[in-house]
């Protein structure tokens, strides 16, 4: 659903019988521009953050380079070479430069919101999670209590966004569908490995991916205060096959002796994987 609209930053501009005007609607940083001009046969848009012009009549554009107040100019032209233009100011969401480094310094997560939080109701070691999937990696940040040690984990990853395919877990009955599993210590350069799901009926069937453990990058557990531990880790998208528009995951934490510690999300009759919509990439031209 489109949330905002606009039209009247400047009055209509006319020249040689051309009346130029436009309106716009947006849903976040995705804008749809509607050309209201009359008497013109071609158009040129300067959308405010481009090094080229857009010549679509009614363009759609996603702003991912800049936000805030942006001047958009529409120039309308006729066959006689006459032209007229109008400039309006739009307001786009601020764009944050998010560059996650897996180094145990969590300041680079400050502009990423938590997408799931059990801290008020959950009793398990893992409490809340952030995810960021811009660029080449899927990055994950988890906070928990001091019981969270991640000595061993099973991380189930639904990489294609389809909860009806892959491993269908009874623990998260309202949505699972894992194509991949990481099992082992949640550490960089550990003996852990990724596994690809193999059972077409959704059961427990996995094939180890040789050398894949090198693709898990982890900060290890970092103690934040007397009650809170945190960890961040990163997985190259290339490790996860054909990625859909969203990914989801769930985690089982175990001790080094394979005793169960906790699940995240906690197992209930309505639990599901934590889902994350990957960021839309910038359009290379207007659509």
UniProtKB/TrEMBL annotation:
Residues 19-95 form the PKD/Chitinase domain. InterPro entries: Ig-like_fold, PKD/Chitinase_dom, PKD_dom, PKD_dom_sf. This is PKD/Chitinase domain-containing protein. It comes from Pseudalgibacter alginicilyticus. The lineage of its organism: Bacteria, Pseudomonadati, Bacteroidota, Flavobacteriia, Flavobacteriales.
């Amino acid at each position: 659903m489109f949330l905002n609209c606009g039209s009247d930053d400047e009055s209509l501009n006319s020249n040689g019988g051309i009346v130029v005007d436009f309106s716009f609607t947006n849903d976040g940083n995705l804008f749809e521009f509607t050309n209201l001009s009359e008497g013109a046969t071609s158009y040129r848009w300067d959308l405010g953050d481009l090094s080229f012009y857009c010549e679509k009549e009614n363009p759609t554009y996603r702003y991912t380079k800049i936000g805030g107040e942006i001047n958009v100019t529409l120039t309308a032209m006729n066959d006689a070479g006459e032209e007229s233009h109008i400039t309006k100011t739009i307001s786009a969401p601020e764009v944050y430069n998010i560059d996650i480094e897996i180094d145990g310094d969590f300041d680079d997560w400050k502009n990423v919101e938590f997408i799931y939080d059990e801290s008020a109701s959950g009793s398990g070691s893992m409490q809340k999670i952030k995810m960021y999937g811009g660029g080449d990696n899927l990055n994950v940040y988890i906070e928990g209590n001091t019981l969270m040690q991640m000595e061993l984990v099973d991380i189930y990853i639904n990489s294609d966004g389809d909860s009806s395919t892959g491993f269908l877990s009874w623990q998260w009955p309202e949505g699972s569908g894992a194509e991949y599993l990481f099992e082992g210590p949640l550490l960089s350069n550990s003996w852990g490995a990724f596994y690809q799901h193999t059972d077409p009926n959704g059961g427990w069937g996995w094939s180890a991916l040789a050398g894949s453990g090198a693709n898990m990058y982890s900060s290890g557990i970092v103690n934040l205060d007397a009650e809170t531990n945190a960890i961040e880790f990163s997985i190259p998208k290339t490790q996860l096959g054909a990625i859909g528009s969203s990914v989801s995951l769930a985690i089982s934490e175990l001790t080094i002796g394979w005793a169960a510690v906790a699940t995240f999300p906690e197992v209930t009759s309505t639990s599901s994987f934590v889902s994350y919509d990957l960021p839309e990439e910038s359009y290379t031209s207007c659509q």
